[in-house]
């Protein structure tokens, strides 16, 4: 199997929409969606053993430089949703695709993606390629899947 054919990590989390995230119509305010994506992104990074604490310890910060959301349907108070995060690019940046679905029907409610780049913690310089530590963690995860 070539590196291009190896699986990339994907995870799915479930959450119930809390009261403090909704407006008077019991619909989630659009800005809270970013928080939900972050929770799924953290679970995805935990899968490859390279979460934010490990990133910083390895000498890199990974700021989000681009984020897009497409709202197809509202999220409602007490609704159970599934949030999928899927790593789709990693060689020069981390690009993660997201889908938020209703947990009961699996109907797609939101689609999104984020892009993060490696920045040296010491010099605050953006790296033009992903650091070796990310590649090592991702390859180790892929080897464990085989």
Q: What would you say this structure looks like, in words?
A:
By secondary structure, this protein is α+β, with helices and mostly antiparallel strands. The protein has a single domain, classed as Roll (Thiol Ester Dehydrase, Chain A). 24% of the residues lie in helices and 32% in strands. A 5-stranded antiparallel sheet has the order 1-4-5-6-3, with helices on one face. A two-stranded antiparallel sheet has the order 2-7. The protein is globular. The mean pLDDT is 95.
Mean pLDDT, all residues:
95
Strand percentage lies at: 25-35%
Q: Quick one: overall form?
A: globular
Question: What is the top-level CATH class?
Answer: Alpha Beta
Structural Rg: 16 Å
The level of helicity is 10-25%
CATH architecture: Roll
The count of helical stretches stands at: 3
Terminal CA distance reads 10 Å
CATH homologous superfamily classification: Hotdog Thioesterase
Structural class: alpha+beta
* CATH level-3 fold name: Thiol Ester Dehydrase, Chain A
Low-confidence stretches: none
Q: How many domain units? A: 1
Strand/helix succession: EHHEEEEEEH
The order of strands across the largest sheet is 1-4-5-6-3
């Amino acid at each position: 199997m070539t590196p291009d054919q190896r699986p990339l990590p994907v995870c799915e989390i479930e959450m119930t929409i809390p009261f403090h995230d909704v407006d008077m119509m019991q619909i989630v305010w659009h800005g809270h969606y970013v928080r939900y994506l972050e929770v799924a992104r953290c679970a995805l990074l935990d899968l490859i053993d390279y979460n934010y604490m490990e990133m910083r310890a390895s000498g890199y910060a990974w700021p989000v430089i681009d984020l897009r959301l497409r709202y197809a349907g509202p999220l409602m108070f007490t609704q159970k949703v599934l949030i999928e995060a899927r790593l789709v690019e990693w060689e020069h940046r981390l690009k993660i695709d997201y889908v938020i679905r209703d947990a009961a029907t699996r109907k797609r409610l939101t689609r999104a993606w984020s892009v993060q780049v490696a920045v040296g913690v010491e010099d605050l310089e953006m790296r033009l390629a992903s650091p070796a530590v990310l590649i090592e963690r991702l390859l180790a995860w892929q080897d464990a899947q085989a």
